[in-house]
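#dry-run=false #mode=assembly
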Amino acid sequence: MRYERPETLMDATALLAEASENAFVLAGGTDLLVRMQSDDFKADLVVDIKSIAGMGEVTETEDAFVIGAAVPCAALGEHEALTAAWPGVVEAANLIGSTQVQGRCTVSGNLCNASPAADSVPALVAANAKVRIAGPGGTREAAVLDIPTGPGKTSLAKGEIIESVILPKPTARSGDAYLRFTPRTEMDIAVVGAGVSLSLDDDGVVKSARVALGAVGPKVMLVEDGARALVGTRLEDAALNALAAACSAGSNPIDDKRGTVEFRKQVAGVLARRAAQTAYTRAGEK
Amino acid sequence: MSFDAAYKKQAFKSVGTRPLRPDGVDKVTGRARYGADFNMPGQLVARVLRSPHAHARIKRIDTARAEAVRGVKAIITAADLPDLTNGDAALFAILDNCMARTKARYDGHAVAAVAAIDEKAAKEALGLIEVDYEVLPHVVDVDAAMQPDAPILDETVFTTGVEPAPKAPSNVANRSEFGHGDIEAGFAQADIIVERSFKTEQAHQGYIEPHACVASCNPDGTADLWVCTQGHFVYRQNCADLLGLEVSKLRVTSSEIGGGFGGKTHVWAEPVALALSRKAGRPVKLVMSREEVFRASGPTSATSIDVKIGARKDGKITAASATLRYTNGPYGDMWAELGAMTSFACYDLENVKTVGFEVLVNRPKVSAYRAPSAPMAAFAVESAIDELAQEIGMDAVELRIQNAASEGTRSSYGPVYGPIGIGPTLEAAKAHPHMSAPLGRNQGRGMACGFWFNFGGQTCTDLNINSDGTVTLAVGTVDVGGSRASLSLIAAEELGIDYQDIKAVIADTATLGYNDMTDGSRGTFSSSMATISAARNAIEVMRKRAALTWDIPLEDVQWKDGHAHAAGTKYGNLAPLSVKDIAAKSGNTGGPIAGHSELVADGAGVSFATHICDVEVDPETGSTRVVRYTVIQDAGKAVHPSYVEGQYQGGAAQGIGWALNEEYVYGDDGRLQNPGFLDYRIPVCSDLPMIDTQILEIPNPNHPYGVRGVGETSIVPPLAAIANAVSNAVGVRMAHIPMSPPRILSALNRKTGS
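#status=ok
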């Protein structure tokens, strides 16, 4: 196995473009290093991106927060402006693994690992986050929603890596929240995850909303019916029930060791409702 | 000299105090050597090839390509572990489990093993071993395995314990029955009868340290084994029997142990490592991965249990019966039998009958797990008792107090009890503030009782008094839960010296006589008895040395408060001689001073506990949080109360995990879906409340200090206590363990009809 620690994005993408299928990007390593312990895992090349300038930084621009691909999730929680702007995204990132894991793991890695149960991804999708992608042919932007295509699979082309995650600055009177269900209190993986982001008008009526679910399908899903159920309401019971029903109906889970179809569909609705209430409260406080 | 083990009431100076454990510093600084911390020059790395099939005939194994891998020094299959078991079915089961012979009987069953110079070569060789399997139909569910059309695991198994003997093979290895009286007559007297079926899923002991050993076979026929085990003498016997070694030529040294809970009481990897070392001519280190630990070592039984209890309106139980079906893995054992024995042991019953069925399934060989088989039986019985109390309209504690066994009760499994603690633990529960504390929204309270036999067994101990007056205590029971601290307290008490002046070590198999393993809650019970005996023998030696020093008759030397005293004034008030004084002169008074003991520690004294538990259930997700937990248990005498409390809390913690989340999940293909701590969910710290404990001390008449074993009983009540609490919180009787969120939510949906 070859280990490379390039100092430029160009070198990193060039290495990956020329590599065999068994090439991996290393940022926090909290997924990769665990997989490397497995007898079935083979790596020919590991490209560590932590030495590339800017990868370890959160940059605040006029209209966005740009989170470098190697920023550990714990650092997001220490970024006051980001935490104030997107508390749901930050709390999702800080549910991953344990305190120790959060010191290493990254939201870009969480996204590229493409687990349907990734905690930060539904929150990012609800926040309408984008990613900047560097590749042999230059850079491009894409919606977070469009990166995972199925369990362990992404839409990234050979040689492409995520450079940063871009969170737009939220509009006034908006809020987000993420909740997940795990049987344990920590050190666990979402059986269901729900991210909700919404913004209010001056009268406290929901102006716009995005609802995303994790672990209830092969990839993160945006539940547009759920969002529609919230828009134009003050989250009255009927709206919340409609949201829950839309999320349950929109879920497409499987029976597995972590939960049943019946359980996941029902809890998707419950968590979306609870997350919406938290997001609504946060929006009203701004 | 003969040893009198009878209890004598006395005031203690050391016993009952809480000094720091002697092994603590090494453990918190990382210096303690666990199984995988031993290394030998030139040692090889071993890896085991495991069956991916739940049930398959092994038609052919070709190791030629694997042997050609550079760095591979030995590959073994069952052919390298010839059957020397001579008709001993229990030993054959261990052998076949270590290395599959004709059939792979579960997903993860070992079929071959490699020793190579490094991990990479071993791993490459594993991938090149060709095994030709004929996949057979499999069965993993206990009830399905008992159906007439179930795939048969072993054509040679005909159910024993039934008359007439069956003519066809089946997956039921044995039927056992216990009880007395006439249950039909008893049920006829009942005003209310509760009848219900229960299921529990398979749980693993979940010890944090995986199995690990280093084996070294020498050309002269001797061998050494360093291993993480609960009983190195038992491992020595198992390995010697399976490999055809003389017991005296195999020296086994136990490492520190990162948890066992019964799962390290018989061998898995050790005979394989020894066989590899024998073939390679070099030391071999074998460390199981967590996945291997789950797939191929020690789970407890999955069960299916029917309970029927009848009572009069006044609360008197008139009859009780239970049918218990326990998975055994692929080999018949006595797990259901233990469940059948323990089911109703807490109660004084005129009419009782329990029947146990040992059921073979394509799952790993069941091994002991802390009070093995009792928690599942208690779950079923104590749930039914709770339901009975509700039906009668009686307080659950009162109903249990009214029917509790006491001294003189004939137990449901046969023996008549001596002084026991079930009544006192129930009275303590009734008086405990926990019992009357207010409950919040979505909360429920449950309680349950538990019983365990406890065990004594063979024990051998040496106590050496060094020339500076310090003491080295060599014991042969592995210290799993702090017994070096407890035994040092015992020696300090007997000798009348300071705890700090005693150093307890676990001796290897070459330096002490045989000791049974640390199981059956026997470590402190039996080794403390042996330590008392050894200390008293050493005191006899010291009395003689004092007599010699003073030149007075032995009978005029008395031992008191850690000193030899010359009797009376007739010797002119000689200053007493301390242990240090006598030890300092030992070179001139007859040489080293030591006390030895070998005994069978009889009369372990049965153990009882009552637990109280509050839970809060999220009615929308089925998520359960244990908000308060209290353990009340009889310790006989708590030698080191902190470690007694630790045992109480540890059993409760494991029970909470088992009750709420832990289970083996098998796919339709018979493969284990969750062989890791991510999806086999033992509780983490934040899942548990502070577990309160109350130690009762009802002296065991068969131990000089009244000590009873305390290690196991604490895991018996939790499944039932939590199930009763959850059932009371949600208003639905939960009869399937674990009560995972999907099971609770599904039960709630059925209740509301949604």
